[in-house]
């Protein structure tokens, strides 16, 4: 029997853990942590260890599928599918123009760094502006806030050295997403706490992360802007700011001070339903504890409850008034490895135009923005007839039917398309409506590198790899015998060839939709490059890497390279400043202050607020059906405090209906005393078609169905209220 065990990279989430993959007779049978990986030191999570089950999943598509006239699906060769799809797309472009073709990139673009870039090159080549990603139904406020505030060119403080840190509506011990570095976050947090770090967590639930905090503020959901403004107000009133940093690097302080002055401890305490003393303690602790203060990061919980842009902006303002950025002479926390070298400087990159420009949507006055096009409005763009109507959608590694808001509208839209193509490893909920489903290769069947995990540092502070670390691994296992699979990027190159398009592939090394560039992009052209391999494509993407790809390759278990990068002094002629006084966002804060929160909090028809949370064993909708991961529970319960369950006269395990002002879904109650009594929580991206509600115990239900897209939404990003949703809970 031929058995090999080689290093690999799990890319299910952005941590990109170094693992060991065992292949027996051409089949992936085991994935474990890699003790010889210098960054991860043997760490993995349950999802990574399930990669064999994920690859060998009996429901995995081994051939692309085409919908037959009777609605069933049959296999189609990948080349043949590309022929037919290219013809159909060309036809639509000829009849309706390029805007009729849209593309949506979901979370499974992340494992394959070339696929997003090639998809983007393709949509630019057909000259369609309709490139959408999951970002605008996630935390688009991060880029909006950075555009309004500016970037600090010295970069972030390292979590591993900080004495305090604030986390708002994020649970990085499970999500590996922000604040605590995702590379074994539990160990990082333990080390930090042992060292004396004081962690402050703001979360309506005693999450795994909140349970380890020095201060856990457990507020009503949706009041994070009030809490942040309150903390800023205390710090300003008690004169705990970093005055020198403010003087040298920050504009707009007086405007900020005035805008937060109404958020007194008493006001915030009543509004957010928290003790005023706790707020004061948190503010003092953050501003004055220790010698090396830390940063402030918010996650999905705080971003989805409305006012996400404002919450993110106030996080940056709080960071900046306390001067919590890396300074001249200090080590660069994320110096780049597979990304290009750059010079970090102790100075500001000024704010830039973040929204209200570029392509206009035909609905709700929405436009393109630094966070990308508003995905929550794509269903409307498909349904709304007239010039510019979207007729074709290509969906890569995403699952709109499970993850987009307003599931019924999404379904109507997808069903009305002339062409829906998904690139998916299984017949996902969305694929069940597609004309073609393109079956791609999976993680261990393609070469891999850690560039994607480095790159997310440009998305927002508190993310990325806080070390000059990189890993490259070749393909570890051949695709299953008899299968006909393609890589996503090859699909787009295949379409381009058939449509005689010239592809310009652009690898950005910056943020703000290309408006903030740390290093010049790599641009290459793909005319007639028919025999290109993934390795060759990676070579092109790494042409300007700080550490050459060949050198990274020579360390199969990954390596932390010897990079001596230090933040340099501010340029003598630099006059750029960060802005904490953005008029639009502080205007939103004034409106927020003027809201009648008392009546908003006392809606007796919808007495609970439904909040999001993530599942340890699943990545959004991926992996739910696998017994190894679901352990007999393939659904998303509605978690509720036991006292609240008893008050409703129900029991844990009861079948219930969750009703929002928009729609309702079935669910199963589960007692959870980590929640406030007025809050219920569930995981998103579960569930079936709206006609499959009776299968709730087999697949859960889709939170997105409860969420309207055109009632409560952010006017800049289009992000609807995906958290803090008013609901009622009744026996079914
Ligand atoms: N109500 C509510 N809605 C939310 C959220 C919330 O918290 N609450 N969260 C939002 C957030 S943060 C996000 S990021 C979005 C997620 O939105 P999406 O990205 O659209 O949803 P996913 O479930 O991540 O979609 C992943 C798809 O990729 C497929 N897949 C798995 N492996 C592979 C692979 O190797 N290759 C390919 N090509 N496909 C693969 C899966 O089968 C699945 O269909 O949802 C958002 N929606
Ligand atoms: N295991 C696993 N990891 C994942 C994912 C996954 O599905 N599973 N998804 C990935 C994706 S796409 C993303 S975007 C990231 C997201 O990563 P995170 O943002 O860390 O997401 P969650 O783990 O859901 O943590 C959100 C927290 O916000 C709290 N919360 C809810 N509403 C509010 C509110 O109004 N205010 C405050 N202050 N808190 C609130 C919830 O109780 C919860 O603890 O995770 C990524 N990593
Ligand atoms: S933490 Fe993320 S990258 Fe690491 S094993 Fe788990 S899913 Fe994979
Ligand atoms: Mo996300």
TrEMBL record:
Source species, domain of life: Bacteria
4Fe-4S Mo/W bis-MGD-type domain boundaries: 3-59
GO-annotated molecular function: iron-sulfur cluster binding; metal ion binding; molybdopterin cofactor binding; oxidoreductase activity
A Pfam family annotated for this UniProt entry: Molybdopterin
Keyword terms: Iron, Iron-sulfur, Metal-binding
PROSITE patterns: 4FE4S_MOW_BIS_MGD
Gene3D superfamilies from the UniProt entry: 2.40.40.20, 3.40.50.740, ADC-like domains, Dimethylsulfoxide Reductase, domain 2
The keyword Plastid is assigned to this record: no
Similarity comment text for this entry: Belongs to the prokaryotic molybdopterin-containing oxidoreductase family.
Protein name per its UniProtKB record: Anaerobic dehydrogenase, typically selenocysteine-containing
Organism: Mycolicibacterium rhodesiae (strain NBB3)
